[in-house]
Structure formats: structure tokens, C-alpha cells
Amino acid sequence: MSFSFRRDVLTRPIFAWAHKALPAMSDTEREALEAGDVWWDADLFTGNPDWSKLLANAPAKLTDEEQAFLAGPVEELCAMVDDWKVNWEWRDLPPEVWAFIKANKFLGMIIPKEFGGLGFSPFAHSEVIRKISSRSVTAAVTVMVPNSLGPGELLMKFGTRAQQDKWLPGLAAGREIPCFGLTSPEAGSDAASMIDTGVVCKGTFEGQEVLGLRLNWHKRYITLGPVATLLGLAFKARDPERLLGGAEELGITVALIPTHLPGVTIGHRHLPAMQVFQNGPNWGKDVFIPMDYVIGGQARIGQGWKMLMSALAAGRGISLPSQSASGAAYCARSAGAYARVREQFKVPIGKFEGIEEPLARIAGTAYQLDAARRLTCAALNQGKHPAVISGIMKLHATERLRIVVDDAMDIHGGKAIIEGPQNYMGNLYRSVPVAITVEGANILTRNLIVFGQGATRAHPYLLQEINAIGNPDKDAGLEAFDHSFWKHVGHAFANLFRAWGRSWTGGLFAPAPDAGAVTGYYRQLSRYSAAFALCADMALLTLGGALKRKETLSARFGDILSELYLLSAALKRWEDEGRQDADLPALRWVMANGIRTMEQRFAEVLANLPNRPVAWLLKFVVQPLGSNTLGPSDKVVHQCAQMVLSPSPERDRLTAGLYHAGANDDGPLSRLERAFRLVVANEPIEKKMRAAHIRDWGEAASRGIITAADVEAIKTAQEAVAKVIEVDDFAPEVLSPIYRQNHPATATAERAAS
Q: 169, 388, 529, 676: most buried by Cβ count inside 10 Å?
């Protein structure tokens, strides 16, 4: 290698420093980083996103077959489910619903047609989960788990052809019910610390001696576990006798375990937050499987963690975000209608500013989450597996659902806290912590994953530098490091001047497409992208590997990156839907709220960056006037709330894809929608009475202010509203066996029924 002044004089000492500053990367960390790929998140990390690239992405669309499935089997499934009975009477989906799910291949939506599945796109998967979630959390979870992280997806990506031919047809047809065993009592989010083992050995299987694995495990929180016939199992493989000719510790491995094998024990059911989807523990003691039960065969032993991370890179971007976006839209539709029909002090509560604020937050969040869901599905439809974006989606969709469900509960007041068949909010409220906990706890995802993985994967140069530092060939590593490091330096200086210019001019001259009324928002995101890229680089430079331990700092950077993605998605939605002016209030609320969040996080980063001179410099560059963004104005809040207080095309767009019961349905949501439309239709009558300063409709009729037909319309609406605001009550002996001894007839009837 010939002498190079830059490489040998300037870069070599930096290379040596970087070796010390960056901690060694474990195999599990490296495999997690290598899982999936990058997409729009990489553009945001450049500090100069190419908006034409984003806008050129075709929106996700359904095929005719997928649309027919939504209009047919999905509608029929929703109509079959009574959420109150599922959760409080049956504690499960009834047998006919299970049979319908299997017969219509709901469990095989993602399995290719060549194996008997439906072969649906990620967007179709998302749309199905969105609609079912608006009817029943239990039904939605039952359908989504086999189509997310589980044996089916792992077999499709990593299984041998023989394994695919053997197992996928049964999974597609519902003859096999899958589950996936990852979480154990000793290891939750830290899957690498699991103690479940598989020892390579010879054993007898189906009458023949074969090479295989003897497994011992204990798993819990396993969805569909209590009814599963095929268990996907993650464990640590060991080869103490060196039968495979390599190391003793082989690493995390994934295998298929038919649950009828000797030694497998399926436990009783867990009851997660009073949700009754099938969930429970299982155990295995000295369970022997042949090598061809390892997904991908013997060659895939030790690659389980990489396989799981790859599957999660896509899965976390579909099911839970779809369920959360559905929940937010559900809250927007129901809370808006209830706020319009429920009166206090002779005024609909939706007209109070104190109610408008949470209503606007619900409507804006519903708009944003569905925008992000659609954009993410568009990437997945293109074959992308955006790991960082999937983490953002899982984290922020479920967290924001928690906020809007709380808001909707507050708006409904007592209506939402009295349990019974007429309560359409309570079960959604109880289910929220489940989504926040599963598929990577949100606390961990926010503090360690989003920015930690994003900084490495999405940054244009950092991963190249890390790989160069880890190269065992020091000369080759130095050469690669020299090549990427100076590009990184140039990139950092470019962002320094970009961030400075854009911040000091308020983003006035930042690049943006011609987007009509929202062009300025693109300029603001260009401004904050440059500021983010600069601050992230400076934090990485000054903290090095210590940044991994600065979890709150990492979380704030992650929040900024997340907002950049979510706000990009909202702008893309407005463009894709034809720049609907009526939707501008929701978009304006989203943008103002997101910009406020980013300003706050920048201020928090700069206040807590350990290197104070660098923090002062960054503050001078990116926040010369401090953090003074106030968020949505009262006017925007009012306009956004109005979107859900009257029937309108914008309300329908905001809540598209939800299940709406038929005209003959008398369930609580149908009652609410009926009352809502009657009350709004009577507004002209109410207006006449107000103009005459008359509140009593009888007096208004006697004075000729309104007609007899108007009186009937008012009566009909009032009766409909009375049904809406009703709540349930129960006889003591219905709720508790304590009281049944005093009601022998009830006890006798129960014994006869059992």
C-alpha cells in the first residue's frame, strides 16, 4: 500500500481514536443492525431530503381481489362478532367465527397462492386489520399474529422448499394454527439472554435414528399459544459433542415444533388486560426434533436472531400500526358524534372549547397515523423492509393511540366507564397497554432502538466507518475508513451551513416542492432535517460509543427523527388525496404539533449535551431565538374539531376503512351514528327556534315557528339521543355468585345450562 499523506498522517490517528471510542459490537447487535433496509429515513438523515423522491412514490393500492375480500369475508366476519359477548360472556371467539376465519384463509393472507394462501400485499394485510380492529380487538389479534411475526413469514423467507411444501399449505388453510415462542420469563426485550436450549445430538424420531436437537424451554405471553398446533420456537443451540464439526455455542436458532410431540406442554391461558385473544405459556422438556425441523435446515442453525430481526423489520410496520390507526379513527368518529349529540347547559358539548381541544387532537392524530400507515405500506409493497421506520411506526402509533383513547374517554365521561353491551369505548381503552408492551416494549424502542439503529443504518457514512473499524485487516480497515471519514466530514460541514442558513431565515429559502398551500411546511421539514443531521453528527463525534448509554439523549433524537417521518407522511397523504382543502385543518394541526415537538426536543438535546461548548455552538446555529413554537392555534384547533362534528366527506376520509354495521343493526355504534345524523339534520329547526328565542319545541309549534313534521323530527332525534346516552346496569346476582344463593331460580337455571 503506497504512502498517502491524508490516510497515513491525518486519518491514522483518528482511526486509532475511533477504535478506542467505539465499543465492540456484539453479534446480536450487528445482526439487528443488518436486518431490514433503509428508505425515506435515510433521506431525512442526509439533512437535505429529496422531496421529489418522496412524492414520486406511488401510494399503496388494493387489487380487485383484495377489495373484494374486504367487501366480502371481512365485512361478514365483522358482522359475526359481538365484542361484548366475546369478552364478557364467551371469553373467546365462538366456534363458528373460528371456523369462518380458517375457511376463508384469514390466517394465510400473506402466504403465496402457490401454497394455498391468499398472497395479499402488505397494504391489503393492513386494511384487513384496520377494519376488523374497529369491530373487535380479539378478532383482529387472532388474524394478525399468523400474518406478522410467526412460522409462516419465517418459512416464506428462510425455509427450505421442502419445509415450505410441508407446512405452508396447512397454515394457509387453517389446518395448522401457528404461534411463535420468543419471550421467556428470564428474557423479555433482551431476547439474547434467553436460557431455552437446544442440544445437538442423535435421537429416535418416527422410528429412525437421526441427527437433531433435544430442546428444553419455558415461554410465556405467547399469542395463540393455547390453541396452536405448530409452535415456532427460538432457543440457543449448543453442540457440546461437536457433532456438526464447529463451535460448541451455536447461537439463537429457530425451529418448528408440532405441539403434539412428546414433552411439549401447552399451559393455561393468560388474560392480558382483560383481552380474550388466545394467549398463554408453554414448556418443553427433552423434546427431540430432527434437523429438518430447524427453519432453513441445518445451515440456518445460529441464524435465528438475524431471521427474527428481518421479520420484525417488516412486521412491526403493519399489524400494530394498522390497529392503532384504526383505533384513532374509531375515536374520531365516535367521540365527534357523541360530542355533537350530548348536550350540557342546552349546548352540544362539542361546541365548548375545552372539548374542541381533545377533539382536534383525536382528529389530527387519526389523520397522521393513517397517513404514516399508508406511506409505510407503500414501502413494504415495493419490497422494502425499513427496520427503523417499522420501529417508529410501532412506537408512535401505539403511544398516540393511548393519548387519543384517553381523550375520547374524557369526552364520553360516564358513558365510557360504565361497562355493558352499550359501552363501545371500554374494551379499546383496556387493550391499549397490550399494544404498547408487545413486539418490543415502547420504552426500550424509544430510548435505544429508533435513534440507535437509525444513526447507524440511515446515516450515509456511519455504518461504513463502523465496519471499517471492525475489519480484522487493519490496513484494509484504515483504507475504507479514510474513504468514508472524509466524506463524512464534508457532509457535516455542508449540514452546518445548511442548518445555519435555514434556521436563521426560518426556513424561508429551504428546498421544497410546489405544493400549494402547504409548501411552507416542506421548507420547515428541510430546515429541521438539516438541524437534526448536524446535531446528531456532533453528538456522535463528542460522545462516541458513550451515546449508547445516554438513553434520554438518544430518545430525544429518536423523537425528532420520528416526527420528520410522520410529518412527511402527512404531507404525502395530502398530496395523494388530491390536496383536499377541507382536510387542511387536520394537516395544519399535525404540522404545528409536530414542529412544536421537534423544537422542544432540540432544546432538550442542547440543554443536556455533555460537551457544553459544542452545545452552545449548536444552539447558536439551529435555535438562535430559542424554542418558541406554540403548537396549533385556537383557530386551527376549532377548525380541526369541526371536521368530526358533522357528517361530511372529510369526516368520511378521516375514518375510511372502518366497519359500519348494516341498517338493521341496533348496536351502540349504530345507535350513535343514527342519533348523530338526526341531530345534525334538525339543525335548521333548532336555528328557527333560537332566532325566535324559544327553547320549547311545543311552544314553537303552537306559535307557528316550526311545523308538526318538525316536532316529530325533534321527538325522533331526542329518542335516539336518549338511547345513546343510556348505560347498562346489572342485577347483583348476574355479576356475582355471592348473591346467587338468595336467588335459587337463577342458580337452578345456571346448573341446567351447564
A: 388
Q: Is 198 helix (H, G, I), strand (E, B) or coil?
A: strand
Collapsed DSSP state (helix, strand, coil) of residue 421: coil
Please, what is the angle between helix 474-504 and helix 612-622, to 10°? Answer: 50
Residues 6+ apart with CB under 8 A from 696: none
- Residue 556: alpha-carbon gap to chain centroid: 19
CA pair distance 634, 427, nearest whole angstrom? 32
Which of 83, 96, 179, 182 shows the shortest CA–CA distance to 140? 83
Rounded Cα gap, residues 277 and 511, in angstroms: 49
Kindly state the cell numbers that stand for 479.
Answer: 483504507
C-alpha distance from residue 707 to each of 408, 510, 712 (Å): 37, 60, 9
Grid cell locating 231: 409452535
Nearest CA to 714 among 734, 694, 731? 694
Give the DSSP letter string of 25-39.
PPHHHHHHHHSSB-S
User: Phi and psi for 301 in degrees, rounded to 5?
Assistant: -60, 135
Q: Position of cell 388494493?
A: 62
How far is it, in rounded angstroms, from Cα 196 to Cα 187?
10
Grid cell of 518 as nine digits: 402547504
Nearest to 477 by CA among 467, 462, 489: 467
Position 686: which residue type? E
Question: Which residue is associated with the grid cell 365484542?
Answer: 83
| CA-atom Rg of the chain in angstroms | 29
pLDDT in tens, 134-178: 999 999 999 999 998 779 999 999 999 999 999 999 999 999 999
Query: Which amino acid type is present at position 617?
Result: L
Asked if residue 275 lies in contact with residue 431, where contact means CB atoms within 8 angstroms, the answer is: yes
Spatial neighbors of 246 by CB under 8 A, at least 6 apart, are 239
Residue with cell 382543502: 581
Q: Are 645 and 339 in contact (CB under 8 A)?
A: yes
Out of 356, 419, 439, 650, pick the active-site residue.
439
Q: Are 300 and 294 in contact (CB under 8 A)?
A: yes
Written as one letter, the residue type at 621 is: V
Distance CA 659, CA 110 (A): 22
pLDDT of residue 469: 83
Find all residues with CB under 8 Å of 8, minimum gap 6, and list them: none
Handedness of CA 150, 156, 159, 164 (dihedral sign): positive
37, three cell numbers: 433496509
pLDDT digits (tens, 9 = 90+) for 657-692: 999 988 788 999 999 999 999 999 999 998 888 888
Backbone angles phi, psi at 550, to 5 degrees: -90, 75
**Segment holding 155, helix H or strand E:** helix 151-158
Q: Which residues contact 47 (CB under 8 A, 6 or more apart)?
A: 491, 494, 495, 498, 499, 529, 530, 532, 533, 534
**Do the Cβ atoms of 270 and 220 come closer than 8 Å?**
yes
Q: Whole-prediction pTM value?
A: 0.93
C-alpha cell at 373: 400507515
Q: What CA–CA distance (Å, rounded) separates 274 from 87?
A: 8
DSSP lists the bridge partners of residue 279 as 223
Active site residue 439: yes
Q: CA–CA separation, 694 vs 700, rounded Å?
A: 6
Sheet strands (E) in 537-586: none
Q: Which residues of the chain fall short of a pLDDT of 70?
A: 1, 22-35, 188-192, 313-314, 741-754
Contact present, 689 and 705 (Cβ < 8 Å): yes
Q: How many alpha carbons fall within 13 Å on the CB side of residue 157? A: 26
Distance CA 98, CA 175 (A): 12
**The pLDDT of residue 695:** 82
H or E element that contains 668? helix 668-681
Give phi and psi for 295, each to the nearest 5.
-60, 120
